[in-house]
């Protein structure tokens, strides 16, 4: 199965001010989507109506279940991958309309109002300027982006070379059980320096960062249809109950209830 590398909106339009200040698109594909690193002048809000998206900005990795969306400010480099066939929507906001919107990439919890407004706007022809009714719907989209709750589904990456090497290795294989001491030896950095600088650069202790990396991989595997027991073992947990306890502490529900809720949203 081949990934679809195309962006959701023509790059010339994503980089321009021409046309409506807000352009919404909806795309469905039998293939998974993998868009290489790129950027554009318009800010972008992207979400899946089913399945899971992961987005890398170079500074962090963001995971997006169907109940959430990622806001990417203009000129922010990013790449995207869907886990399974792609069915999603996106909103592109002209620079002039981004003044009141977040200036950093983040995950937002999607409201029913936002989803309905985006899908309504995606059904219009965006070749013409919006009429008064359409302009009000587009204004609702902007208001929702500015006010929706932020979600803790981001994995910030440290900037220091040795720390980033450790973080990328753990992000690629969250089941790696090496201790902080062993990681420090592997990267040729003092354990105390690793602990102190990792927390300073990512905003969380090393152990908490590792747990979040495991949580985000668990979401990917869960949405891909893997059984919970298998996910727990793949992520290095000694028991299913320990994995479920971590998941519930992080997201407030068990993996099975979380999956049921996401499927109902989709």
Automatic annotation (TrEMBL):
<feature type="domain" description="HTH araC/xylS-type">
    <location>
        <begin position="164"/>
        <end position="261"/>
    </location>
</feature>
<protein>
    <submittedName>
        <fullName>Helix-turn-helix transcriptional regulator</fullName>
    </submittedName>
</protein>
<dbReference type="Pfam" id="PF02311">
    <property type="entry name" value="AraC_binding"/>
</dbReference>
<keyword id="KW-0238">DNA-binding</keyword>
<dbReference type="InterPro" id="IPR018062">
    <property type="entry name" value="HTH_AraC-typ_CS"/>
</dbReference>
<keyword id="KW-0804">Transcription</keyword>
<dbReference type="InterPro" id="IPR003313">
    <property type="entry name" value="AraC-bd"/>
</dbReference>
<dbReference type="InterPro" id="IPR020449">
    <property type="entry name" value="Tscrpt_reg_AraC-type_HTH"/>
</dbReference>
<dbReference type="InterPro" id="IPR011051">
    <property type="entry name" value="RmlC_Cupin_sf"/>
</dbReference>
<keyword id="KW-0805">Transcription regulation</keyword>
<dbReference type="InterPro" id="IPR018060">
    <property type="entry name" value="HTH_AraC"/>
</dbReference>
<keyword id="KW-0010">Activator</keyword>
<dbReference type="InterPro" id="IPR009057">
    <property type="entry name" value="Homeodomain-like_sf"/>
</dbReference>
<dbReference type="InterPro" id="IPR014710">
    <property type="entry name" value="RmlC-like_jellyroll"/>
</dbReference>
<dbReference type="Pfam" id="PF12833">
    <property type="entry name" value="HTH_18"/>
</dbReference>
